[in-house]
Predict the structure.
Amino acid sequence: MNRVYIKTYGCQMNERDSEAVAAMLRARGYRIVNDEDNCDILLLNTCSVRDAAEQKALGKAGYLAQRKKHNPQFVLGILGCMAQNRGAAILEQLPDVDLIIGTQKFHQVPGYLDNLRAARDAGLPIGQSIVDVGEEEGSQNTIRDHLESPERQVTAFVSIQQGCNMDCAFCIVPKTRGDERSRPMDDIVAECRALAERGVREVTLLGQIVTSYGRRDYTHTNGISPFVQLLEKVQSIEGIERIRFTSPHPRGFKQDLVEAYGRLSKLCEYVHLPMQSGSDRILRAMNRPYSSQRYAEIVGALRAVRPDIYLSTDIIVGFPGETDEDFERTCRLFEACDFDMAYIFKYSVRTGTVAAELADQVPDEVKEARNQHLLELLRRNSERRTAALLGTVEEVLVEGPDKTGRHFTGRTRGNRVAIFDAHPRLVGELVPLRVERASVSTLYGELVLNGVA
Ligand code: SAM
């Protein structure tokens, strides 16, 4: 009765939180399983950034709750952002949910499940649902355990910060994730070192606004921000070969971070730089503290330091009051930046945010048309950027078998997924790949193994 299945919605932060919960549960004697039809406890780790994500998780929870009719012992939990956003109100719609656990309480999940199981073993009725969505000091330090698996793990996410203080007019994250809190630098470095000892070669540092890392806890030294100091420390860890991070804020791209791309050899030449809009009027209404010109300057500075840099972005179309002219400005900046990848979102009204109260909401069909237009620009650009890679040799980190199990997969430093044939002993190695074929998002090729052990 201790088989746990965790389903995760949303971003890499949520995936990392789920992994930490799974590791804590396994340490307590629970079994983490991959089959949602054969589990005793099902936890949905949820996302609130857009309404569609919440509706998806609510629909799934409603469907799963029916399982209790045949199996009253089945435990259903809702964790993370939607739990934090909606709290006990979820029970009005879904009274059979057993656990509602917020974003600062992930580490309490094992204890709550132990209590539920003990009550059940004692023959007591399971009773009322448990709702815990409070704040907890130091909770950012609890996302540190990693799941060990029999296969070698080559890449890992490392949480460096929780919460966000940016107050973007559209965004619910400050409500669901609380105030910005950073983990101590030494703890993060120790975690990366332990991962390297286990065979991890690439770490992705995670936070809502990673570029603000440690700004209240550490000082700048010689013009170097705490975030760049952290990058320097991770760079010096033997065994770690590649460093990535997400997500940053354009405001954090000062000279020290831009220059880091020229001097930190392990920092991959790939940046996800959320733009949101190319119209200064809309950026101001969004409470984004940069102009379109400043955004273009950052892109130019990064390309000056690393001409081969790969860029991706987030764009919101249909923010309240966005006119055709505003959207055209977004398209122009989008094309000028020559992105490899972009996440394009139709603006979603989030109750409790400033933008939800704004007049002049954009009709759905206009959002959809703008979304399609940008997707088409992105497709053309990605295709062109990918075509330029044909015939070149790219370094890939071999991560393991691909989904089919017939080939191997890995990523280039520019974060492109590659599929190729390899010997299993190459898992964890950095190997040159000659790119022979490409779809918009995936490269196919052959490893260039001369001189590679
Ligand atoms: N670091 C990022 C930044 O600079 O703002 C924040 C990451 S945010 C959680 C992920 C993305 O979701 C945002 O960049 C934004 O494009 C999108 N997003 C947030 N709120 C949204 C909303 N109400 N509607 C549509 N997209 C939204």
